[in-house]
């Protein structure tokens, strides 16, 4: 677990600016996801600016973790099915079609969160990932991402990085 290249490190450079998972977004979360057996896992400790009320994490941050771990897991699972060498080749690119989040308990600050994904379905261009977010032994959120391999027509915007969509 957590050995080798993170899924997000396999994103091509022109789509590595996502706020949640882009390794080239210095102000972002830079989430890193890995295989753990048949599941996927990412860990992240929220920063003070991710506060909802003092002591608790903003729900949008929790949703971002589920979103980007979901698309990363989809990239890894879809690439594996397509025969891409995950360790060295660029991964297939997926975007979020649907993001569902259930908040089960307040998420404490100052704790490393663990995001776990289970690949429920790989079908054509679609990958469905079921996820949990845990703080210690407590599952604080559940989520589901439907990710779709981006159409060939969807390309990053031209111009300076800060003006591009992603
Ligand atoms: C944003 C620009 C980026 C440009 C480069 C990106 C590069 C990526 C790199 C990684 C980056 C990470 C990113 C982080 C996560 C974001 O934040 S991504 C940003 C937020 N997401 C978006 O902006 C996506 C906007 N939506 C779209 O562009 C289009 O709706 C989509 C998602 C590409 C799907 O459109 P489509 O290709 O026409 O899909 P379509 O063929 O109709 O459906 C394919 C399958 O998906 C299912 N599906 C489609 N939509 C839905 C839905 N909403 N609910 C449930 N199922 C659905 C269909 O039912 C179908 O399933 P099956 O019938 O085969 O079982």
UniProtKB/TrEMBL annotation:
The keyword rRNA-binding does not apply. Its EC number is 3.1.2.2. SUPFAM superfamilies: Thioesterase/thiol ester dehydrase-isomerase. Keywords: Apoptosis, Cell membrane, Cell projection, Cytoplasm, Fatty acid metabolism, Hydrolase, Lipid metabolism, Membrane, Transit peptide. GO terms for molecular function: hydrolase activity. Residues 55-137 form the Thioesterase domain. GO terms for biological process: fatty acid metabolic process. GO terms for cellular component: cytoplasm; membrane. It is found in: Cell projection, Ruffle membrane; Cytoplasm; Membrane. It comes from the Bacteria. It is a peripheral membrane protein. It catalyses: octanoyl-CoA + H2O = octanoate + CoA + H(+); tetradecanoyl-CoA + H2O = tetradecanoate + CoA + H(+); (9Z)-octadecenoyl-CoA + H2O = (9Z)-octadecenoate + CoA + H(+); decanoyl-CoA + H2O = decanoate + CoA + H(+). It is an enzyme of class 3 (hydrolase). Belongs to the THEM4/THEM5 thioesterase family. This is Acyl-coenzyme A thioesterase THEM4. It comes from Arsenicicoccus cauae.
């Amino acid at each position: 677990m957590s050995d080798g290249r993170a899924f997000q490190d396999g994103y091509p450079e022109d789509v590595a600016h996502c706020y949640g998972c882009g390794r080239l977004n210095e102000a972002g979360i830079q989430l890193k996801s890995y295989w753990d057996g048949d599941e996927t896992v990412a860990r992240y400790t929220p920063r003070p600016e991710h506060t909802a009320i003092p002591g608790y994490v903003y729900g949008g941050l929790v949703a971002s973790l589920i979103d980007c771990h979901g698309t990363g897991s989809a990239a890894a699972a879809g690439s594996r099915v397509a025969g891409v060498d995950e360790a060295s080749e660029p991964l297939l690119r997926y975007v979020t079609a649907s993001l569902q989040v259930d908040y089960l308990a307040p998420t404490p600050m100052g704790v490393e969160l663990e995001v776990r994904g289970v690949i429920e379905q790989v079908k054509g261009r679609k990958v469905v990932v079921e996820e949990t977010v845990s703080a210690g032994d407590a599952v604080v959120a559940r989520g589901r991402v439907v990710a779709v391999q981006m159409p060939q027509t969807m390309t990053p915007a031209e111009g300076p990085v800060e003006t591009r969509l992603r």
